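I'd like us to work through together how a protein chain folds, taking it slowly. To get us started, please write out a protein record for me. Label the sequence line and the structure token line clearly, so we can match residues to local backbone shapes. Once you have written the record down, we can walk along the chain together.
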Amino acid sequence: MQDFLNPFMTNIGAQELSALEADITDNPVSYCHDRLNRPVCSLEELEKQFSSVNIPECPVDTGIYTRYLSENVLNQVMPVSSPAFVGHMTSALPLHLPALGKILTALNQNVVKLETSHVLTALERQVLGMMHKLVYNCDDNFYQKWLHNGDHALASFCSGGTLANLTALWACRNQLMPADGDFAGLTREGLARGLIHYGYSGLAILVSELGHYSLKKAVDVLGLGQDALVKIATDKDGKICIDDLLIQLQELRRRNIKPMAIVGIAGSTETGSIDPLDALADIAEREQCHFHVDAAWGGASLLSERYRHLFKGIERADSVTIDAHKQMYVPMGSGMVLFRQPTMADAIEQHANYILRKGSKDLGRHTLEGSRSAMSLMLHSNLHLLGRQGMAALIDAGIEKAHQFADFIHQQEDFELISKPQLCLLTYRYAPPVAIKLMREGSEQIRQKVQDMLNALNQNIQTMQRSAGKTFVSRTSIKPAQWDKQPTTVFRVVLANPLTTPEILEDMIKEQRQLARQSEFWEDLQALLSSE
């Protein structure tokens, strides 16, 4: 038995593991550049390495396991800290965070309840209060009253935007059908009985066609059905079309379907577009429905005095989602949902005899998740060690870099900017000038052929670039207004990493140009273009 207790009592044979940990955490960016700048193993190869499902019977030496990790796992992780990895939200992190993460792991706190977190409960409420003030800017008396009030919640942490959106809409749904007469409330009797009692044929949530896929999950989990998510058309800038929203609301009234919530997007995942939040707040108020803002992407930009005006109206939202693991530079797994009125969280309050007791200040009383790590400490550290000015400077630099890169793309005759940056995201594609000319002047049949070929080519370029392992952009398919809303495969770039330079981006474009000529679709595209 003593042999199995050793890992809990002494750090036997861990020198190699400690050396590997230091090699990575002392400078993750260098590790990514020096060790991971190589062709990527195919998924098929990796699956073969991890095909055994037998649990090891006996412990192995720590040094042997460390070498296994180094040679088979860590050498194939994605280099998300690299300044040339510009395809997703993950970025290089401030170098104090790996050490802080190690401390949190060692202490193993669980903020679901006071008994396993204590001081970190108070700290988390403080951080949530800071974020609430960032969005709603209430006076000091408000925060003195509500900040540490255990019976209500200004906000809550969760693993990310998906759960934040779900939590907001869960509270919205439960508030919509409270106890009334002989009806004990939706929370007790369920959605079907609630619809009957209140006389609705159904509920609906309205969001632009660029709404995050988590909303589709939310209507499913909440029992509304995926058809309850009503997608609204967008304009040429990716913003929700108010006229189409009003038409859809009129149609819902005709069908006796209650609009449960209107969702405004403050930074769409694909293009970074921001809806007219003030106008949406007016409509939600008139329709007497919940107004939720998904600011998972854009919420951090509220720290910027230069760009905060883009979010005018967010302070009128009943609830707001923000992801700290995007542009607040904390590790993955740190989302938040904020409530304008602290009493809104009462609609989702839960209790258990062994934890989350009535009258307690357990954070888990108002969260969908149970056990959670103290990720709030990561954000707390950034807010103090970087400060508002430092974080704002990072956000401003990312947006400015996106505008500079957009200008650079404009100067390339064989690349086309698809969506102009509103935040630090933009989309573009490889498209030779002859192809663009045919797309504008050719017959409908020719335009479709060229579009299909460009889609295939750009998809292939992105796949080859990812496999080469030098640089990375993501790809998506959007329906830009300039191409008659035709599905268009584009490169998606996120310029959140403060270490990304213009030179890196220029080299990335050069690589994409070279890969285009190496693509299996290149000759077919040239043949098509020369035949017209």
In short: The CA atoms of residues 183 and 197 lie 7 Å apart. The chain has three domains: 1-78, 127-139+154-340, 389-531.
